[in-house]
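Technical annex, item 7. During the second reporting period the consortium partners agreed on a shared format for inverse folding records so that results from different sites could be compared directly. Each record opens with the tokenized structure and is followed by the designed sequence. A conforming record, contributed by the partner at site C, is shown below for reference.
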């Protein structure tokens, strides 16, 4: 079951990142979005392109950072991938996402939803970085789980949008709701996972890593 979840996570994350890179790298800007969104993107090409390509780095690299095998056998690789994840993906993707939130489609509710997501994404990334600089592996992991659950908002958004269309929900309403539900439940689930796995398994591995 765990293996299936992991494979699904990799496939969805890399699938959405690949989709974004393909659509925004090879098709005219905003080809597949609402005409009003396209008009916004055309006015903010640097904002949207930097957001998409930087965030795609986070979505692609993120899942590999949770591999215990990579962390233990290739620690240097884990560190470099982590730096790229945080510096390119979260920092550039988050700042440009925050900027684009001011122009988001559909009014104040989605704007605030995306802006809040961007701020918490940046905050959890910073906390994860500070924790590891201080050598606190347990805290670093917890903040990274929270952070990646927010990166995964990009996947949930692209699952909910077609579902809302199939359900016949009007786009503006759906978009306003999805701007929130693409990340709030992820964060709740991340918190639940952190608590469940909690002390025992976290501490055992941290002790093992310190001993090794
Ligand atoms: C987690 C923090 C993120 C925030 C705060 C955020 C914010 C935003 C905002 C505000 C927009 C513009 C929406 C509009 O104009 O209505 C946008 C669009 C977009 N974002 Fe993000 N985003 C995040 C993560 C990601 C990730 C990880 C990806 C992965 C590639 C991504 C890919 C895209 C794409 C492709 C678009 C263009 C719209 C589309 O084609 O669906 N975003 N994002």
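Designed sequence (site C submission):
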């Amino acid at each position: 079951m765990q293996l299936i979840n992991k494979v699904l996570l990799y496939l969805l994350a890399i699938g959405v990142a690949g989709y974004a890179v393909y659509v925004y790298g090879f098709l005219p800007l905003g080809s597949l979005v609402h005409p009003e969104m396209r008009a916004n993107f055309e006015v903010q090409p640097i904002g949207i392109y930097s957001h998409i390509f930087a965030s795609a780095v986070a979505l692609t690299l993120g899942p590999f950072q949770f591999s215990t095998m990579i962390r233990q056998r290739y620690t240097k690789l884990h560190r470099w991938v982590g730096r790229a994840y945080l510096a390119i993906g979260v920092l550039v993707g988050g700042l440009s996402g925050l900027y684009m939130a001011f122009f988001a489609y559909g009014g104040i509710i989605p704007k605030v939803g995306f802006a809040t997501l961007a701020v918490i994404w940046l905050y959890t990334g910073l906390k994860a970085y500070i924790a590891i600089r201080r050598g606190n592996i347990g805290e670093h992991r917890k903040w990274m789980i929270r952070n990646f659950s927010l990166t995964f908002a990009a996947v949930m958004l692209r699952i909910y949008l077609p579902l809302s269309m199939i359900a016949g929900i009007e786009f503006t309403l759906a978009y306003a709701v999805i701007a929130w539900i693409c990340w709030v439940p992820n964060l709740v689930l991340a918190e639940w996972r952190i608590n469940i796995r909690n002390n025992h398994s976290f501490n055992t591995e941290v002790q093992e890593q310190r001993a090794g």
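Residues 2-207 form one domain. The chain is about 85% helix and 0% strand. All partners now use this format for quarterly exchanges.
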